[in-house]
Design goal:
Length: 328
């Protein structure tokens, strides 16, 4: 095998995923995209928001089950599992993920597209439970949002198979537990609350009262040293000094660690390496950005020239379409 093609957050852009796979040299044989010398690693977040969620899940699942791909869990698959899992008596809520207007909105497209296919949705949820939370193999590490070594090791002790089960999700739904810290950090990354009364109004219509942080700054001093999201911090908050507590809350991934591949962070523009040994592959495909892959061929140093992508223009007629897939 020549290497792996790591693919970022698909978010229901199933036709774009098929186009990207074809651009990477994969061809549809017996209902599965295959390459003679390479395999795919999906970074999670197959579902929610996009126009062809079922297609995205079907493509990825068939590849994984046929040994043509691997996958790690994204926070949106975790959210689907907890949104659909009843809480036990005395838990204080009906569902592990409360059905609030915000949560309802995030999963709305997924539920609508599976509405007439309930058995297929149940099968997809069952498959999500089989997906590992992270991967480490052939000299690389893969996790959806953040590699925190201490929490990865703690998870290994709790779940040696690398997968979450219903009991883990139940404990993770309780604030302050080790399980909640593991799931939050590995699938959502770090964040810092904004000052009282200040919020970020994102382009996707959500209001956020915290900002996402990265985890490869060696000696960060200000909020601007660690912010990692497309939305700018309001006012002059980028120059605000990190408090000792905020600095202590950050994960750190050093330059001598193995190459790491993540998604999650809604990057924009031309794909680039945020750190020499870190590649983020989420370039906002479902927000008319790019669906991005990194062609890893066992190189010792990551190279930005190895990014491959398919753009997603707003004009549907301008979007490249796959040649081989049969749409339902």
């Amino acid at each position: 095998m020549d290497g792996y093609d790591l693919i970022g957050d698909v978010h229901g852009c199933g036709a774009t995923l098929a186009t990207l796979l074809e651009r990477l040299g994969y061809h549809l044989r017996n209902g599965v995209y295959r390459h003679p010398h390479r395999k795919v690693i999906f970074l999670g977040d197959l579902i929610d928001r996009g126009p062809r969620i079922r297609l995205a899940v079907t493509i990825a699942r068939r590849m994984v089950e046929e040994g043509e791909a691997y996958i790690v869990l994204g926070n949106h698959e975790i959210s689907a599992l907890t949104y659909t899992q009843k809480a036990p008596p005395g838990h204080g809520r009906e569902w592990l993920r409360p059905h609030t207007p915000r949560h309802n909105r995030i999963i709305r497209e997924t539920l609508e597209q599976y509405r007439d296919h309930p058995q297929e949705w149940d099968d997809a949820l069952a498959w999500f439970r089989e997906i590992p939370l992270y991967m480490e193999m052939d000299g690389i590490r893969v996790v959806h949002a953040c590699w925190d070594t201490a929490l990865v090791q703690a998870f290994q002790q709790l779940r040696p198979d690398g997968r979450v089960d219903q009991e883990f999700l139940l404990r993770a739904s309780q604030h302050g537990t080790l399980e909640s810290r593991i799931l939050e950090r590995l699938t959502r990354g770090g964040s810092i609350p904004l000052p009282e009364g200040i919020a970020i109004h994102s382009g996707d219509g959500f209001t956020r009262r915290s900002f996402r942080t990265h985890f490869w700054a060696n000696s960060p001093v200000t909020w601007g040293d660690v912010v990692f999201q497309p939305d700018n911090l309001p006012g002059d908050l980028e120059s605000r000094p990190l408090s000792d507590a905020e600095r202590a809350s950050l994960s750190y991934y050093g330059p001598d660690e193995p190459p790491l591949f993540i998604g999650h962070y809604w990057c924009e523009g031309i794909p680039a390496l945020p750190a020499p040994n870190v590649a983020c592959l989420d370039y906002s495909a479902v927000k008319y950005g790019r669906l991005v892959a990194y062609r890893y061929s066992f190189e010792s140093r990551l190279d930005a020239n190895h990014f491959v992508w398919v753009p997603v223009p707003r004009d549907v007629s301008q979007r490249p379409l796959p040649r081989e897939i049969t749409f339902d």
